[in-house]
Design a protein that fits this description.
This protein is of the alpha/beta class. The chain has two domains: 6-60, Arc Repressor Mutant, subunit A (Orthogonal Bundle), CATH 1.10.10; 70-250, Rossmann fold, CATH 3.40.50. It contains nine helices and 14 strands. The chain has helices at 6-17, 23-30, 34-46, 63-69, 73-84, 124-129, 152-158, 187-195, 234-242, and strands at 50-53, 56-59, 92-95, 114-118, 133-137, 141-143, 148-150, 163-168, 172-174, 178-181, 197-203, 215-216, 225-229, 246-250. The strands form four sheets. The protein has a seven-stranded parallel beta sheet. Helix 1 (6-17) packs across helix 3. The longest helix has 13 residues, at 34-46.
Length: 258
Amino acid sequence: MQLLNERERKVLDLLIEDPHIGVNQMSKLLDVSVVTVRSDFDDLADKGYLIRTRGGALPAFHPDILARQKNNFTVKTAIAKAAAKLIDDGDTVMIEAGTTTALIGRYLLGKRNVKVVTDSTLLLPYARSNPALYLTFVGGTFSPEAESMVGPIAVQHLELFHVKTAFIGTDGFSVENGLTTHMMEATDVVRAMHNRSDRTVLLADSGKWGQAGFARIIPLNEIDTLVTDSELPEDARTNILEMGIELLIVESKENGKG
């Protein structure tokens, strides 16, 4: 994620402490003009930290999530934007919790009658700012480090739905180990989304190729589409295409793990 200057960090901190803080109040606390505060809001929204609302802004991410978003942000947004293009008006989708998958919400503005089932609280700000987005949020146990709902209740709720496409993430993927995660409690949720959809789309930057998390989710050949960046090695591309997986590559100068 792009670096912030000192005032931008203060703006973000104030919004996290009080999401309903007004522009006038913030200008007084920062000792700057209202015009400057609005300009900071616009800049932070462009960088992905905030979602602009009428007369103000809301934090796009929980503070713990911001640290994960800092790495490889350009690639993550490019991947999410490409994934969002797979969603048409009237589609039904599931979006799994994750710092990349949640960014899909940024690019659903303008689409109509899209029904989204998710375990991710990171999508809530996008639902507030997009009246054409129909968000169903599953219950369960809240996991603050992932900003998600997990556990048996979350899985039971997911079983009530069937959607066209599930968008999922991973901490690592390879031919040998498939999709893996460091968060054991997330595996059942991801499997449920995969099983309750006609198509499964994996969003993963190339830095996760060959990495292995603690828990195995599903075999790699069970996904239908991989959206990744241009740094994915040629041998990996060959292996993935040989499995019959659709490969969507986004161009970006930035690369790394995240």
